[in-house]
Amino acid sequence: MRACIIRGTGSLDRIEVADVPDAPSGAALDPGHVRVAVRAAALNHLDLFVVHGLPGDYHFPHILGADGAGVVEATGHGVSAVKPGDRVMINPGISDYTCEYCRAGEHSLCVNYRLLGEHLPGTLAGSVVVPDRNLAVLPTLAPPLTWAEAAAFSLVTLTAWRMVVTRAAVRAGETVLVWGSGGGVSLACLRIAKLRGARVIVTSSQDAKLVEARRHGADVTLNHRTQKVSREVRALTAGRGADVVVDHVGEATWEESLRLLAKGGRLVTCGATTGPKVVTDLRRVFWNQYTILGSTMGNAAEYAEIVRQLGTGALRPIVDRVYPLAEARAAFERLERGEQLGKIVVQVAE
Ligand SMILES: [Zn+2]
Fold it and tell me: Which residues surround ligand 1, an ion (CB under 5 A)?
């Protein structure tokens, strides 16, 4: 099958589209597993980190891609949730369902947690094999979800839902600041915080992305290249500060995140796209009684909930641009340049 692969880590020049051995099928499928013919796969920052090199063992050639959607081709023994021909979206987080965290329903804390495209063969390929628990049948919407939209849904929406709803527990009337609009996680956090009834302030370094954020419900937008965000947030809240800050940027924003929070505020982080080593003035944390919340992906109940929300017409993914598989490297380059408004998608098959 054709796949977007790397044979070693490094720059994006490592990315190639090549023939690789077919994914398992028929009797070779493990019990509880499903082979999905991928129609579209969406890119995430995770995929850039995988190309540049993450700790852990790679098995080259490594197939990239965490997010995907397609048609069920074959099912292993014991699969009843889906059948061949079903149109499905894939939750890229694979849990063992046996460790203490899984037994408690916290599947993204699994001691054996693995992600498609990082620890396992990814979705940028003709077919991918996943546990049936990781599939959701596409909800019926009008107009129908495109394959690109379906592929763009899972990772960022799940990540954002857990951050905003479960971890930060955003309530109606609270003020939430979301850094760096334009990427999938930020846009999803904005829309979910609006669903919760919050007042949402969004930042970007690009005015075009701020226009887009207002179109998706942002109450206030700030250009973090030309404006001092903490000062603006204080001014917008009569000196009080924001209740919640959503930070997936890391080094470039962390100190400002702590400066713009109200007393008792919560900072929730799911990533560090500008680097992980931040400076924290602990006096600010204890005196103001801040809560710092880590968050990664989400559990099965949260995934079911976001799929249900999608079925109501909420949280429909925002697609930036769709590339054919042969041009997958150009898609990665657009993501690395940070030019996107929404999700960058690769169409794997018609
Ligand atoms: Zn587990």
Answer: 95-96, 99, 102, 110
